[in-house]
Amino acid sequence: MRTPGRKRRATDRFVLVLLIALFAGLLGASCSSTADDPNTVEVLTWWRKGGEAPALRTLVQVFETEHPNLSVINQPFENSDQARRTINERLIGGQPPETFQANGGWDLLAWALHKAGRDSEATAAMGKALSLGTRDAMLFYHAAMIQNSLGNRAAAQDWLERALAVNPYWHPTQPAEARAAIGGVS
What we know:
Layout: H1 4-29, E1 40-45, H2 52-66, E2 71-76, H3 80-92, E3 99-100, H4 105-115, H5 119-130, H6 137-149, H7 153-166, H8 174-182
Helix pairs in contact: 4-5, 4-6, 5-6, 6-7, 6-8, 7-8
């Protein structure tokens, strides 16, 4: 059994790995640049509020200190749905952003556990993701699909309805796939 101190250290390491991954994305982007200016690196995020914006500013400051010939242009969106839509459109249109924010943390862990068939563990991780209060269609979709895999049809339908209420077009195929899998949701 983990002690609270060990659990906290593991969580801190996980957060550090996520920050390193975002920072590595910035480093990888240093090999390319925006079409308009070869001395800039574009980042698409939805980090605008709370501790997110200062965290991103810190990452950018470190990057720009280590790469003084490059500057970071942050393209923040109001929410993850807007950012994801823009990222998808640009990827499909052949104009990908140099680097962008992707889901991490508890939602990512929950989805990975679900995809590995470990839905009981996924439920615990999803509970932590949902406890943060984020209103995100894909997060709710993940919760719905995990609950559906566990046979909790009512809970799955509830989470899918929430996802559709936030953004019925969060993904090109997932809303229809979820409706077909869960049923009873219009």
